[in-house]
Design the sequence.
């Protein structure tokens, strides 16, 4: 077992990243030791949340089927918000967009940082959309069925040569006017640290001429401080993470909708612009407890995977 390392800056424990399968494979140094152990909800409240989540998941297919298509978008958003609430997480949305052109028929690529599986619920609660997500999500308990309804575009990060297929699928759906969300860091981080967005999947916006909606996503506790409870990192299983989330108290998912970024012609430039928007006033380098284990910005300076797969 690889030992955890102590950050000299933050004093928090973190785990070194696992060896990547290939040079472009995203990895995070965050592990279970990064995640806060929050005040636990009581047995009765936790049980009620579990029943609420299960009830929503089982009722959704039937209700979705009988709902007229023109009303399904609102239904999906309400279901996502209710599901998030059943998980004990409140939603706060701050709209800083300077234009509402994303309400037009144009396709829209949505990008946000990645903390855990609750990110999908938080984004869908703002506006229903498809997602680029890990391929095995389809097989997860509870969330697998929801993923199929959300028309997830699966990606196997271990299969580098699959990238052009994923980008082509994204481009086609964006060109058809759909909203597609992705997490460009490529893996989850605890919420206090973050990685660099990988530019490869931004090519879908460039190819389809679709604008990009950056969203600043973070989780806060009842005191307004950053919360890592929803972090799905390291050796966490889905059940480990679900148990921690369902037993938490006072967690708020805060989403800041930022001004749109036009795609332009260079995915690298587009990724940099979106990163600057998502980080705001923060330093664009990785958080101190991540750099303490040797994953500074230079770690993400690697050859272009699209060029490698098409060479």
Sequence:
């Amino acid at each position: 077992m690889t030992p955890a390392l102590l950050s000299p800056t933050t004093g928090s424990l973190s785990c070194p990243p696992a060896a990547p399968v290939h040079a472009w494979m995203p990895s995070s140094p965050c592990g279970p030791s990064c995640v806060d152990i929050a005040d636990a909800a009581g047995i009765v409240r936790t049980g009620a949340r579990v029943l609420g989540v299960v009830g929503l998941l089982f009722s959704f297919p039937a209700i979705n089927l009988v709902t007229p298509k023109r009303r399904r978008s609102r239904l999906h958003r309400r279901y996502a918000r209710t599901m998030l609430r059943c998980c004990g997480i409140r939603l706060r949305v701050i709209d800083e967009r300077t234009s509402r052109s994303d309400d037009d028929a144009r396709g829209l690529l949505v990008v946000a940082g990645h903390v855990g599986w609750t990110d999908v619920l938080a984004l869908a609660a703002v506006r229903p959309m498809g997602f680029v997500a890990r391929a095995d999500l389809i097989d997860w308990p509870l969330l697998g069925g929801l993923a199929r309804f959300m028309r997830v575009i699966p990606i196997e990060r271990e299969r580098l040569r699959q990238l052009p297929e994923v980008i082509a699928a994204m481009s086609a759906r964006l060109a058809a006017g759909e909203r597609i969300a992705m997490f460009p860091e490529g893996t989850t981080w605890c919420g206090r640290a973050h990685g660099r967005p990988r530019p490869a999947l931004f090519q879908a916006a460039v190819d389809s001429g679709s604008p990009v909606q950056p969203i600043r996503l973070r989780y806060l506790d009842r005191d307004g401080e950053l919360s890592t409870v929803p972090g799905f990192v390291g050796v966490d299983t889905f059940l480990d993470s679900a148990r921690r989330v369902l037993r938490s108290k006072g967690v708020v998912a805060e989403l800041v909708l930022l001004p749109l970024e036009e795609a332009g012609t260079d995915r690298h430039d587009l990724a940099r612009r979106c990163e600057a928007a998502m980080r705001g006033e923060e330093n664009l380098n990785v958080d101190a407890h991540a750099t303490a284990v040797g994953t500074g910005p230079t770690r993400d300076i690697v050859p272009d995977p699209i060029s490698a797969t098409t060479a």
Residues 114 and 188 are 5 Å apart (CA to CA). Residues 43-66 form the longest helix (24 residues). The mean pLDDT is 79. The longest strand covers residues 212-220.
